[in-house]
Design a protein that fits this description.
The chain has 326 residues and is of the alpha/beta class. The chain folds into two domains: 150 residues, NAD(P)-binding Rossmann-like Domain (Rossmann fold), CATH 3.40.50.720; 169 residues, Lactate dehydrogenase/glycoside hydrolase, family 4, C-terminal (L-2-Hydroxyisocaproate Dehydrogenase, Chain A, domain 2, Alpha-Beta Complex), CATH 3.90.110.10. Helix content is 41%, strand content 18%. Strand 4, helix 4 and strand 5 form a beta-alpha-beta unit.
Length: 326
């Protein structure tokens, strides 16, 4: 039996975590031979609700789940953690402006960054899903100066999956037939889903779709999908967000396959002219040892460059809003 790995999840009583936790415990994330210990963090007021989730996890009798610990103490939750899902955040509600969401969640991620800095594994992988994910990743990383910036990422795999589905539906193929989609920039309505390098069953996507569909249908559908789901459900994306978190963390931990890549918001190293330090979504490949690297030297069209710079500008503006926490 392998040594158990410690996985911490914040906002563990919330709707995203309810879809996420049981999939992690079943072995979907790290495989059927890897035992795990779950550390579940919640605010004090909902620990009773979290107890019900723990009871259900235990009632599943998962063979890989060695222990579940629930707590309102971030240092206990993150102590020695190998992988961390920062899910807990105040949710976006109908009519809420993005700035309001940013300001209400910023303090949460600053405090969690300090706790991670104090007690987490020095090789921890921290995936920020709580919105606004890119800037929350920046806040968390900035408050964990003893951890390498490569330990942190924001989740844009949800947007990546949305883009895959839109292209697959348009071309009448399965999602597995789509390769090399890119989502650039911020996990927001300024994000840029890019098809210039995408393929469909090995064919260039641009040969199969027309420009009007890309600009008038594909890009706005992906950009505004979160809002459309919120309007339809009255709640933010949950199951699809949990699935994206599984996919992104699994790729980050175990490596990407073949010549494909994933979209991840990582600390910019200056690639493609994006300001260093911003957590910006790039195409990323991951080696089998878990080392992530930005895919470089892709040809960027003027059409793409303008959109990439627009979403970068939004990230700079968000950073300015929370600069006192960095």
């Amino acid at each position: 039996m392998k040594t158990p790995i410690v996985i911490a999840v914040t906002g563990a009583a919330g709707q995203i975590s309810y879809s996420l936790l049981f999939r992690i415990a079943s072995g979907e994330l790290f495989g059927l031979e890897q035992p795990i210990i779950l550390r579940l963090l919640e605010v004090t007021s909902v620990l009773d609700k979290l107890l019900g989730v723990v009871m259900e996890l235990n009632d599943c009798a998962y063979p890989l789940l060695q222990k579940v610990i629930s707590t309102d103490d971030s240092k206990l939750a993150f102590n020695g953690a190998d992988y961390v899902f920062l899910v807990g955040a105040k949710p976006r509600k109908t009519g809420m402006k993005r700035k309001d969401l940013l300001e209400s969640n910023a303090v949460i991620f600053a405090e969690q960054g300090k706790a991670l800095n104090a007690v987490a594994s020095r090789h921890v992988k921290v995936l920020v899903t709580g919105n606004p994910a890119n800037t929350n990743a920046l806040i968390t990383q900035s408050n964990a100066p003893d951890l390498n910036s490569s330990c942190f990422a924001g989740m844009t795999m949800l947007d990546h999956n949305r883009a895959i589905n839109q292209l697959a539906e348009k071309c009448g193929v399965r999602s597995k037939d789509i390769k090399n989609i890119i989502v650039w920039g911020n996990h927001s309505e300024t994000q840029y889903p890019d098809l210039h390098h995408a393929t469909v069953k090995g064919q260039k996507a641009f040969a199969l779709v027309d420009d009007a569909w890309i600009t008038e249908d594909f890009i706005p559908t992906v950009q505004h999908r979160g809002g459309a789901i919120l309007e339809a459900r009255g709640l933010s994306s949950a199951a699809s967000a949990a699935h994206a978190a599984i996919v992104q963390m699994r790729a980050w931990a175990l490596g990407t396959k073949g010549d494909d890549w994933v979209s991840m918001a990582v600390a910019s190293d200056g690639s493609y002219g994006i300001e260093k330090g911003l957590f910006y979504s790039f195409p990323v490949r991951v080696a089998v040892d878990g080392e992530a690297s930005i895919v470089n030297d892709l040809k960027i069209e003027e059409f793409s460059l303008e959109r990439m710079q627009a979403t970068e500008q939004e990230l700079k503006e968000e950073r300015m809003t929370i600069r006192h926490l960095l």
